Amino acid sequence: NQKIFTSFSVGNSAPNRFDLINNPNPKSERLYNTEIQYLFSSNKFLISTGLYYMDYRNQLVPTGELNDVGAGIRTNVDKSYRLGLEVNSKINFDPIIWSFNLNISDNKINSFDEYIDNWETGEQEVINHKKTTIAFSPSLIASSSIDWQIFKTKKRSWSLNFDSKYVSRQFLDNTNNEDRELPGYTAHDLTFSINSKRLKI
């Protein structure tokens, strides 16, 4: 009922059609991915924890800009990474099952150049950012799900489900500018369902 898993892999990804349209010379991405995972399971309890490090070369990251048809524009950055911890768990309190998922991550670009148009000089100013957060990369995502089977017979069952999710703040571009920030949010969903089997005649 216990497992330990480790892996190291290398992946490559070519620029997509939108990258080729918006960027004259996009480079292909390369990823060095390292993972360590531990799993414990029993009849009533399951937990899986994983530590990962994703080391990128020439990662294509969103700039926060949109092209003329509304597609996101991406650009290559020399070096970037995602370092994180994932936790998945499930507890069976029959007739209630509780599931919980957590992802904590640090998503950074070592060096990013921001280009700003200067309308007075007609030139572009370049601002270099060090150790900046990758756009649209929240550092914390957590979710919880409670499933309660209120009662069950051969012909019918009633169940109640309550889902909650939290996503921390994220940035619209790679500059860590708080004026271009999406605040964190929490969402809840409550569902009541009835399942009924039709009688065979």
Give the tags.
nine-stranded antiparallel sheet, mainly beta, 11 strands, single chain, elongated, 1 helix, 201 residues
Descriptive report:
With 201 residues, this protein is mostly beta strands. Helix content is 3%, strand content 72%. The strands form two sheets. Strands 1, 2, 3, 4, 5, 6, 7, 8 and 11 form a nine-stranded antiparallel beta sheet that branches. The mean pLDDT is 89.
Query: Class by helix and strand content?
Result: mainly beta
N/C terminus separation? 45 Å
Taking all Cα atoms into account, the compactness measure Rg is 23 Å
How many alpha or pi helices?
Answer: 1
Low-confidence stretches: none
Q: How would you name the oligomeric state of the polypeptide chains in this document?
A: single chain
List the secondary-structure elements in sequence, H or E: EHEEEEEEEEEE
Task: Based on Cα principal axes, name the global outline.
Answer: elongated
- Share of helix among residues? under 10%
Compute the average pLDDT: 89
Biggest sheet record:
9 strands, antiparallel
Which helices and strands, and how do they pair?
Blueprint: E1 2-13, H1 17-22, E2 29-41, E3 45-66, E4 72-93, E5 96-118, E6 123-133, E7 140-152, E8 156-167, E9 170-171, E10 181-182, E11 185-196
Antiparallel strand pairs: 1-2, 2-3, 3-4, 4-5, 5-6, 5-7, 7-8, 8-11, 9-10
Task: State the gist of this model.
The protein has 201 residues and is mainly beta.
